[in-house]
Write a structure and sequence with these properties.
The complex is a heterodimer.
Chain A: H1 16-28, H2 32-58, H3 73-84, H4 86-97, H5 107-129, H6 154-187, H7 190-199, H8 207-240, H9 252-279, H10 287-317, H11 321-332, H12 336-348, H13 356-359, H14 362-389, H15 404-427, H16 433-447
Chain B: E1 3-8, H1 11-23, E2 29-32, H2 38-43, H3 51-76, H4 89-116, E3 135-140, H5 145-157, E4 161-164
Antiparallel strand pairs in B: 1-3, 1-4, 2-3
Helix pairs in contact in B: 1-5, 3-4
Classes of the chains: A mainly alpha, B alpha+beta.
């Protein structure tokens, strides 16, 4: 994929000191618009908080869910955010292992996105619980009743998978941040110096330290790769282990993993484009990087499109009337709207990325990535809700429409996610300074101009 | 005993300095670099890192912990659910897999902190330019003839700044 001729342009190559200055600039520069955005996010989070309070006070009836659709917007949004969390580790770990140089300038933001997306996703099982104060029932602890979690249950697998994913992603992110925090410690004075100094743990970059760092970074990349595949497989098994038509399928694990990477790459693009524009990082995040992300987006879109087709093929091939009816209704019944929005956003719109002109247009890429984000939320809605609404017995068929409480909490989750992204962008280097330097040093040494 | 701290502005010069210092019998070098440098690790003779042992022990610990957690809790309260055997290893394997990975990563991180002796204070030889674009080589040398011979060595290799008696 990466060839020598489309690399970072040689002329105007930043120096190592430039990298320190440019990437840490947003931290010390005040922006009025920044506080405005942060305020909007805080207001939306507060609205969601009010909605949740109402739900806790009045009970789960405030959410639109009822039999047979007991998993609604909360679980849809949960799966959506877990999916978003995936490309962070894909970009950091998998592309590190295969030595794809283009990950360098986007991996920090992608990893931060992973952590904040898991933090957002993690709220939804709690909100969905109703009696949120009983959440610790999932945690294995020696209780006085000698009861332990049922380790055969996909929901318990899910807790372990997502807990591990969050912890390992955090360690991976933090390890990569330590040398950059040392850069900030050395640049700033006063309270900032103290804070960055404390978090950099006294890093001084001796070659021996770097050898330990490199070794662990490699190992974390190595273990994060199977981990990232396992996490969304486990999420998919929350569904596929049940006998619900539309869920009980062996293709669910790879189907969900591809969808997760697809939506995650889209979210990386949605976040990186405004950040690059706001902080003037054009010299570091170039069209070359966006071109590669666009190709990854196109590739995963094809897998997702194939999976949509394959689901229909398997339903027909099974000759099972219930399975066939479930899929017929999905595309033509009450939820035909969400279904076709999903197909349009995830298959039709990304097909424009076949053209180099679209891939090289930052504006077009931004619009496409927003379409994919919307489409992937609808995909989870279609999978979860249409399957439950139209199970075996026609007398048990009911449709579900989300309530205002659910939608407010869903919108609030976006605000919560972007709130953290904004805090991150203002307090930590959004590009890995050290990796940029490593790349630049080799360019300077071998480029010779 | 004090020493010589030499600063370099290129990887090549640093490598040359390390090699000539090691040839002259100075094996206890402290080298600072602004980014990871496999070349300098090689020049210093660092072949492997003990982190691999930490990761392995972590992985084994995680695996064993998860086997014990899933198996022993199932035996402690033997209740048949979903028509599956009390010890349903295929289902438990997911927990075992995740915990193996979790402990590998956490032990590895603890190992890195342990071997870097961090969190800790900065050494007196650290200069803030080492987090910008400079490489630093610190050599322990007795004041007098030894220090001046080291100084000549690093200057020949292309040091841009030399401090003695650090």
């Amino acid at each position: 994929m990466a060839t020598a001729e489309i690399d970072v342009p040689q002329q105007g190559l930043p120096s190592l000191a430039d990298a320190n200055r440019d990437i840490s600039r947003p931290i010390s520069t005040p922006y009025k618009r920044y506080w405005l955005l942060l305020g909007i996010c805080a207001a939306l989070i507060a609205a969601a908080g009010v909605a949740w309070t109402i739900q806790i006070r009045d009970g789960m009836g405030r959410a639109g869910m009822n039999n047979p659709v007991n998993w609604g917007v909360y679980i849809v949004t949960f799966v959506f955010w877990v999916g978003i969390a995936h490309s962070g580790t894909l970009i950091s770990a998998v592309l590190y292992l295969v030595r794809s140089g283009w990950r360098t300038t986007i991996n920090r933001t992608a990893e931060a996105m992973t952590i904040f997306a898991v933090m957002t996703a993690g709220l939804f099982p709690l909100i969905h619980l109703g009696r949120v104060w009983y959440f610790y029932y999932l945690v294995p602890y020696p209780s006085t009743r000698l009861l332990w979690p049922n380790f055969r249950s996909p929901l318990v697998w899910d807790m372990f998978a997502i807990g591990t994913y969050f912890t390992i992603s955090l360690v991976f992110w933090y390890l990569g941040l330590i040398p950059d925090l040392a850069v900030l410690r050395d640049r700033f004075t006063g309270i900032k110096k103290k804070l960055y100094g404390a978090f950099s743990l006294g890093w001084q970059g001796t070659v021996k330290d770097w050898s330990h760092y490199r070794r662990l970074y490699l190992y974390l990349a190595g273990i994060a790769t199977p981990l990232v595949l396992s996490v969304h497989s486990v999420v998919s098994w929350d569904f596929a282990m049940g006998v619900v038509p539309g869920w009980h399928s062996t293709i669910f694990a790879p189907y969900f993993v591809a969808g997760a990477i697809f939506s995650g790459v889209a979210m990386v693009i949605t976040i990186t484009i405004p950040l690059r524009w706001a902080f003037g990082l054009d010299r570091y995040i170039t069209e070359y990087h966006f071109d590669n992300m666009a190709k990854l987006l196109l590739f995963t879109s094809l897998i997702v499109g194939y999976a949509y087709g394959m689901e229909y093929f398997l339903a027909w091939f099974s000759s099972d009337p219930i399975e066939m009816e479930s899929f017929r209704w999905r595309a033509s019944g009450f939820y035909a709207g969400p279904f076709w929005i999903m197909v349009f956003c995830n298959v039709v719109v990304p097909a424009s990325l076949w053209f180099k002109r679209t891939r090289n247009s930052i504006k077009a890429l931004f619009v496409i990535s927003v379409f994919v984000n919307i489409g992937m939320w609808y995909e989870r809605f279609v999978i979860i809700v249409t399957s439950l609404a139209h199970e075996f017995d026609p007398s048990a068929w009911r449709v579900y429409t989300p309530s205002l409480v659910e939608m407010t909490i869903m919108v609030g989750s976006f605000a919560w996610f972007f709130f953290w992204i904004l805090l991150f962008a203002k307090t930590l280097p959004v590009i890995s300074i050290v990796e940029v330097k490593e790349h630049l040093a080799h360019e300077h040494e071998h480029g010779g101009h | 005993m004090s020493g010589i701290l030499a600063q370099f502005d290129s990887l090549g010069a640093t490598r040359k300095a390390i090699e000539s210092l090691r040839e002259a019998g100075h094996s206890d070098l402290e080298v600072f670099a602004p980014f990871p440098t496999p070349e300098l690790e090689e020049a210093l003779g660092i072949i492997s890192s003990p982190i691999r042992r930490w990761a392995l022990i972590g992985g084994i610990t995680g695996f064993a912990t998860a086997v014990a957690l899933t198996g022993l809790t199932a035996l402690a309260y033997p209740l048949v659910t979903q028509g599956k055997p009390i010890l349903s290893w295929p289902a438990y394997f997911i927990i075992i897999f995740e915990m193996t990975i979790l402990f590998t990563g956490l032990f590895g991180f603890l190992g890195v902190l342990h071997h870097m002796k961090k969190p800790g204070r900065l050494s007196p030889q650290y200069r803030t330019s080492f987090s910008v674009d400079r490489f630093g080589v610190y050599v322990l040398a007795a004041a007098g003839a030894e220090q001046s011979s080291v100084e000549t060595l690093v200057r020949d290799a292309g040091a841009v700044e030399v401090e003695s008696g650090v």
